[in-house]
Design a protein that fits this description.
Strand order of the largest sheet: 5-1-2-3-4-6
Radius of gyration: 15 Å
Number of helices: 4
Low-confidence stretches: 1-13
Order of helices and strands: EEEHEEHEHH
Oligomer: single chain
Distance between the termini: 33 Å
Helix content: 25-40%
Length: 126
């Protein structure tokens, strides 16, 4: 069976292998999101150490998941290369999961500011 690469966000890439279909989910979040000091730093507008996470899902999420386009190249490899160059200091509103999602989608598909587009077509709900 041929490989099929498409993108569906909540930050995920759907890949079909020989006998399995799964989604690889990429996310950017604080390194220690449950730490009170991380929360205080985020609330005060300071940067905190961030981390890019990768998970494999056997089913696509039923909500908050949109098709955003195709990658002309091997999407998963290209996403990992993007992740290796992503600056991991996280600052909410300036360099956070929304910027990560927009950057990754643009890197994979060429589509710019995808979250703003989704917010417009979904009546402010993305």
């Amino acid at each position: 069976m041929a490989k099929f690469q498409s993108l569906s966000f909540t930050n995920s890439t759907l890949t079909r292998g020989k006998d399995e279909v799964y989604a690889i989910v990429f996310d950017f979040q604080p390194e220690d999101p449950e730490n009170i000091y991380t929360a205080l730093a985020v609330l005060s507008g300071r940067a905190v150490p961030g981390v890019v996470l990768t998970r494999k899902l056997t089913k696509l999420p039923r909500s908050r998941c949109w098709f955003v386009g195709y990658s002309k190249e091997e999407a998963v490899d290209k996403a990992y290369k993007f992740n290796n160059t992503w600056e991991t200091d996280l600052r909410v509103g300036f360099h956070d999961c929304r910027d990560y999602t927009n950057g990754l989608v643009e890197h994979l598909t060429g589509e710019k500011l995808v979250l703003e587009h989704l917010r417009r077509i979904n009546g402010g709900q993305s």
